[in-house]
Amino acid sequence: MRFFCITHKSRRSQARLGKITTSHGEILTPAFVPVATKGTLKAIPPKDIREIGIQVAFVNIFHLVDHPGIDVIEKFGGIHTYANLSIPLMSDSGGFQVFSLAEKRASTREGEGIPLVKVTEKGVRFRSPRTGRELLFSPELSIRYQEKIGADIIMAFDECIYYGASHQYTTEATERTHRWLLRCIQTKGSSSTLPPQARDRSGLQQFLYGIVQGGVFKDLRIASAKFVAQQNTPGIAIGGVSVGETKKEMREQVKWVTPFLPEEKPKHLLGIGRIEDILDFVPLGIDTFDCVEPTRLARNGVVFQNKGKQFYRIDLTKAKYLKDKNPIQKDCQCYTCEIFSLSFLHHLFKERELLGYYLATYHNLYFLEQIFKKLRIQIQKGEI
RNA sequence: GCGUGGAUGGCAGAGCGGUCAAUUGCACUUGGCUGUAAACCAAGCGCCUUCGGGCUACGGGGGUUCGAAUCCCUCUCCACGCA
Q1: Which nucleotide is nearest, taking the CA of residue A302 and each C1'?
Q2: What is the maximum alpha-carbon separation in chain A?
Q3: pLDDT per residue over A179-199, tens digit each?
Q4: Mean of the per-residue pLDDT values for chain A?
Q5: Which of A77, A90, A122, A336 has the highest CB neighbour count under 10 A?
Q6: Residue A273: pLDDT band by 50, 70, 90 thresholds?
Q7: Mean pLDDT computed over A328-340
Q8: Does the annotation mark A48 as catalytic?
């Protein structure tokens, strides 16, 4: 079984069509990877996932270690069975939480202002924002955890560098991430008979992605891309993007890197994105994107809409929708748009009715899946 | 009819002589959300403003005081109790 194969290459750009094959099914790329951090695609029951067209989802080891605990998930036979998610799953290593929780402090009963994160060569000490208890993450532990929950695609443990970091700090952090990658590969290899980075565990193959860092600095980004490429992991992810930099900077960071990544490997862009970002990055050869945007925005009352090629985000809580009989998107065939008016959705959100979160999330996920479907067709037709 | 307790910004509800244009919550408006501490967060929310400030306000009227949402008198209305 080949993990990734390219089925079509664009002549106009670096865009390509591909297929990722995992123990839990195939993923046609380019693909969107909605985020189900805690093992749930917030507001959406698993039975709707296929109907929406979702091919793969993203869980996060950090949150699952905190609760319910890796041992619990393991006893249930892994995250797929535990959470009833039958599609391929990617798991994140916890590296993003270095960025997400840094500078923030836990306010506990005892004392206030305990830093939530401490990075050392060994790994990262986190303080659970939920309980205040300390969690240790290292490359070895992160990989072990990810193995135990049994995600199909797993991420190397990295440090997501904060925006504004100096060249010196970014160099140190990126090099540390590289050393961590070697430890991740070694851990993965030591627990496996073959192949080295895709362990076979009770029939399950897991594929490790190395992560490119380098912050906002071109030299560091390129060096990181080269280093990660050399390690020959089954896939490669680009991280440390969209952490506060401008749109222009973000585009550059990805553009600097892609020429140095092996064509035959699947490329994942961590944490992106917005529809306009996806449209820009697919022609650069990015195959998969994970992002909380469609689900989080939906829960905050914001849904996707388009007029031709123009994409919009509309806020359902605005009073102007009170009497609007139209659906969110007239030609959208999702459950929400086929049945519900903007007025009713507005009402649900103003009243904080649970159904609103479901319907909005359903629409946003469906809408994005449609965009990816169209993208795949356009690549096939040579339009991208 | 008598007694007691009340009447505060759209609503609820603090304040009980100056630091009160008035705590707080809700509602409302606006902005934000990109590997999820996110069904969340932030700002605004009497009128005017050259952003220094000015004006009108705590049921109505009158009074005490340098000064009242806060004390006194009275009227109106509400709640509860007794006839």
Answers
A1: B33
A2: 63
A3: 999 999 999 886 544 444 444
A4: 93
A5: A90
A6: confident
A7: 97
A8: no
Task: Give distance CA A93 / C1' B3 (Å).
Answer: 74
- Reply yes or no on whether the pLDDT at A103 is more than 70: no
- Parallel/antiparallel/unpaired status of strands A207-212 and A235-238: parallel
Spatial distance from the CA of A323 to the C1' of B47 (Å): 31
The per-residue pLDDT for range A50-73, each reduced to its tens digit, is 999 999 999 999 999 999 999 999
Q: What domains appear along chain A, each with residue ranges and CATH number?
A: 4-291 (3.20.20.105), 293-384 (no CATH)
Is A290 catalytic? The answer is yes
Estimate in Å the CA A41 to C1' B21 gap, whole number. Answer: 47
